[in-house]
Amino acid sequence: MRTTLKDIAKACEVDVSTASRALRDDPLVKQATRDKVKQTAKELGYRPNLAARSLQTGTTHTVWLIVSSLDSKLETSAGESASKQLSELQYDTLVALHHQDQSTVKRLVGRLSQGVADGAILIPSQHTPGDTSVQQLVESGFPLVLLDRAIPDVQTITVTTQNAKGMASLCEHCVNAGSEFLVIHVDDINEVTHTRLQGAIKWCKANNIAHVIDDGNVQIPEGIKQVGLISNAHFEVMKMVRDHPSWLKDYTLRFGVFDGWLGEPYPLKEGFVCKQDFPAMAQRAVEELIKLIDHPDQRGQRKMIRIPIREIQHRSNHFG
Amino acid sequence: MRTTLKDIAKACEVDVSTASRALRDDPLVKQATRDKVKQTAKELGYRPNLAARSLQTGTTHTVWLIVSSLDSKLETSAGESASKQLSELQYDTLVALHHQDQSTVKRLVGRLSQGVADGAILIPSQHTPGDTSVQQLVESGFPLVLLDRAIPDVQTITVTTQNAKGMASLCEHCVNAGSEFLVIHVDDINEVTHTRLQGAIKWCKANNIAHVIDDGNVQIPEGIKQVGLISNAHFEVMKMVRDHPSWLKDYTLRFGVFDGWLGEPYPLKEGFVCKQDFPAMAQRAVEELIKLIDHPDQRGQRKMIRIPIREIQHRSNHFG
DNA sequence: CTGAAAGCGCTAACAC
DNA sequence: GTGTTAGCGCTTTCAG
């Protein structure tokens, strides 16, 4: 058997309640008793049972971060930032994965309503949930903050990026660098990608820049020499290049993507990467979550918080 | 207040114990009662309190995966595989981060001894722990499996890769592809890197291949035209190339690295990547963990399990 | 300053 | 089939 408070109390010839107080440094307990209790606790290798404590206090000092997977930088970065920041605040941070599986989302969200955590940050599933588990959780008063995208009908705080502005910035940098024509390829699969696509289009129109939305059948006008490929991600740009091998010979190519470009710009000339400020997003999400945890009266309000882009990074070829 | 068993019992005019049985589909309870209880549980939005259950049963149906961060493929891959596999077995998987911080490792490992999980998988910190918290945990009989590297004096199962063989394979592929001379650069910082370094050296000696260990002062013999750069990772190879810019002109360069190469081989000619089988490692770790959980008598035995390399991947330049 | 006692919500003997 | 009872390990009034 693991040693319990009872064991310590017995060993010290005090009551369990005294032992309990002593271990939490209650000043009501005489210094001598406190020392003695702590001493024997150490000797017996005492570890308080968290289930029992949680049952009594109703809190866990634990926060869950629920994400779909660990392969996007947003997810891993959020995990690391939140974990670091919350540990300063004496919370344990636990990351749970739902694998884009709706029933798993439901199960994990359900756990939250079973007292496993004091609050949670959720990066919602790509596919709009058909169920209302998250909505119910929030309505029950559980402190939840959404990261990256909102969920319809869920009345809570969402922390996201200035997606439209970021995309516009990518277009602008390509044009300033010399691109005369932009090919915009953004799979419009969710709220975030939608905002980005619109951001790019609006900027082009506002600034009168020749452009085309990639529908798989792109024609680049005569006379164009420099083309910018605007997209969500590295792999989408590379797909465009593979689908149109002639572009590499015919044009000077630049890319504009979100978040990351792996390795050299090669075979493109150069490019720009819109770096979201993941740590700032996570930090803000944590701050808001803590507020919700500490102030039950502030729950139940829908709010969007847009964190500014961290930087537009220029990527050029180091080796010629 | 959240609805409890008591509320349901009252509503159904039965005892809490009956309600408890009914909800767990105990066949001893009359079908009619079972239905009624379940029905009102649903209506009242009943969610069993897991702390209370855990306090009673001593189990949590939860497994922790403790890792340093989320930026290596091993860590994220382990997280995803373990989470998927364990959810089939009705376990919740929670990932906790220790940020290479010794006190955080200690805190998290400490949590395990407080009943937060039924078992855990740990990827140990880079720096050898000066403390004995893990050792104590294992000695207390807690089911723990180590992933990637062992910890001295900890009597439990470790699942790792055939590191020596992988490194030898990289050397072999470079040589077969034409490299006449190998520069081996492996920072010898832990058990894993040590094994790899030795693996490379032994293979070169056994096969009589000219090579040098990079000590920052490498001389490549006269007459050599094709050089292989063997290292742990992409960034280390790129560092070598940056430190010796002349190599790009003087030699045909190949790389041999573990796990991943980002983007094109450029500016090198081509290279080889030793892909560890992270999913297989995680899967095996999970299997062993489940065994330990289910069979308390099998705990306390030190064992190394080496999972074969998944493949040696050839990376060549797509664009010329 | 410390002890006695109640109770958090649930499960599991043991009765009837 | 169902109720009674005890108890998991801890915190927290309330007495004294």
Any key phrases for this structure?
20% strand; 434 Repressor (Amino-terminal Domain); DNA-binding; 42% helix; 6-stranded mixed sheet; 3 domains; homodimer; 320 residues; 12 helices; Rossmann fold; alpha/beta
Describe, in plain words, how this protein is organized in 3D.
Two copies of one chain form a homodimer. The first copy, chain A, has 320 residues and is of the alpha/beta class. Chain A folds into three domains: 5-48, lambda repressor-like DNA-binding domains (434 Repressor (Amino-terminal Domain)); 62-160 and 278-307, Response regulator (Rossmann fold), CATH 3.40.50; 163-276, Rossmann fold (3-Layer(aba) Sandwich). Helices cover 42% and strands 20% of the residues of chain A. The first copy, chain A, has twelve helices and twelve strands. In chain A, the strands form two sheets. Chain A has a six-stranded parallel sheet with strand order 2-1-3-4-5-11, sandwiched between helices. In chain A, helix 5 links the parallel strand 1 (62-67) and strand 2 (92-97). In chain A, helix 8 crosses helix 9 (191-207). The relative contact order of chain A is 0.12. The model of chain A has no long low-confidence stretch (mean pLDDT 93). Chains A and B meet through helix 4, helix 5, strand 2 and helix 6 of A and helix 4, helix 5, strand 2 and helix 6 of B. The structure holds a DNA duplex (16 and 16 nucleotides).
